Amino acid sequence: MKIRNLIVILIAVTTIFAAANSPKKNNAPIHYFDVDTLVFIEEDEHGLGFDTAPYLPENFDPYNGEFFLDAINYIDENDDLELDFDTSGYLPIGFDPYIQ
């Protein structure tokens, strides 16, 4: 009985592998992709609901200007942060932020 089950399993596995590895001819027609047939969807501009001109400088252009990396203030991990008050009154008793 065990040999019969082993033979049936072996035949089934061989049939599955043979079916998976058999070359199949694809009869579907070949369609070439043409970039000129693409349809571009233009999104509508969503306004803020009010006129922003009075709140901006004259001749303001958000896309015109210079950008300097030095203007970005980075937070250094080695900088010690000192709070101006005692936080122990706001935390539970025995609170340790380093315990997971």
From TrEMBL:
Keyword Signal carried by entry: yes
Signal peptide annotation: 1-20
Could you tell me the keywords of this UniProt record?
Signal
**Superkingdom, according to UniProt?**
Bacteria
Protein name per Swiss-Prot or TrEMBL: Uncharacterized protein
Source organism (scientific name):
Flagellimonas spongiicola
